[in-house]
Design a protein that fits this description.
mainly beta; Immunoglobulin-like; 4 helices; 35 strands
Amino acid sequence: MMNDRLPVMICLFFFVFEKGILRLGTNALTVTSPTEINASLGSGSTIVLNCSFEKETGERVNLISWRKKNETRNEYRGIISYFQSYAVYFDPDMKNRSKSISFDDSSPSAILNISEVQCKDDGQYRCIVEYINSNNIWTDTQTETSVYIQVMADIPEFTIQPANTTLEEYSAVNLSCSANVGRPGGIVSIWKQSHISDERIQLGNSSSSVTDTGNCSDYANLLITYNLTRSDDGFIFGCTSKNKHTNDPAPSKEEGPRTILYGPSKLSIAFSPQKHSFFAGDRIRITCSSDGNPRPTFQWMFNFTKIVNGEKYHLSDQDRTIEFTISSIKDSGYYLCFAFNSFNGKLYNINDKKMLIVQEKDIYLSSDRKSCLNIECSSIEKCTIQDNTAICSVDIWKIVAFVFLSFSLVLGTTFAILWRYLKRRNPGTILDEIIIRDGEDRSYETLSSGTIHRNSEERNYESLSNGMTDTYNSIDESALRVGEGAHYESLGRGETHTYSSIQPTVSM
């Protein structure tokens, strides 16, 4: 029997082999269809599945089919098959809701026009074109089209637990959001928003949705536990539902605003004017600032003695500020500020202190030290006015001038000593035509070496012999010419002339 089957098996092998080789032939025909179609539910909405082909010379299209992928299995079921000029439906419901246009030689397209779009129309479609190629071999080619049924997202359900609108800082709240996010499946997101800003701060997004094919809906849920802080005061909380086709603004629901209670914090004390130290007679304002909700109240103490509004101290701005005039050094010390509030039967407080320095010297010397006329500075200091007070400080230019004068004195003294030394070493030096002024003019045409002449009156000496000393203590009136000085032409060598008196009428 084996020998009888062998020829049959050989023939069958070559038949299958031949068919396989022929099926591997080159497909020149091209097929196109929409990659994605988005449609809405309702009688006015349609889905147009258009499968077009373009063939080469010698090719002949025999059959075109539209098939839809099963939702539970990875297989496709037939909807409709097109032959030349007519079509055959395999889905009775689709036959009642659609129109078909078959292909022919003048219209290379197979069109399925679905009306009264339903949720079940969503899914994956495949177009298969079967034809005989130029080698007279039966083959096929195909394309894929995704159909999405769009369903608008609904307004979400949103709750906050506890539902109190006034809550303490650090308390936890549960934020819950759920919604039909429509088709295709979307998300819900929870957010918060300040009353002074349009920006929404995202607190969380749902990670998945549950599809209900019966009513063409996707449901998403999100639950968040959130710890409140003081920065959430005045914020509203909300939830939004959307899918990729949802336009802004997306359906939302919100709750709020929420009031967040917290104790005093960030307390600070400031002096005005801002100075390191003060003096008697100065007016000072001390202000205390603190955060807190409800707004804190304030109390003041000076060195642990309570300050009250009265003759010395003036309190304002709900006791945040005290103002007074410094009377003496006794106002120096610590000024303490206490801030406190209460809520839900609890008292919260905070305090801080700041040192006030009052200088004693300004109490007694304020009137004397307001002008440079009332204080004395050293020779190397200068007086300036600072903070309405006259003070002495070193004047660098006076120091520079002192150094310069000292240097000049030393230099002049050195020069004089050197000149006298050089003169002694050269006694034969002759000074010709030197004019010396000492109250009156003297004219010495020639002075011999070693000669000394002293007089406070005008005299003209044409020639004085070497080595002579001439001292004139007395000159007779008759010996002088009117309006002229005495004229001595020659004095003998070694002679001394002495005059013991000068008459009042003599003019030299």
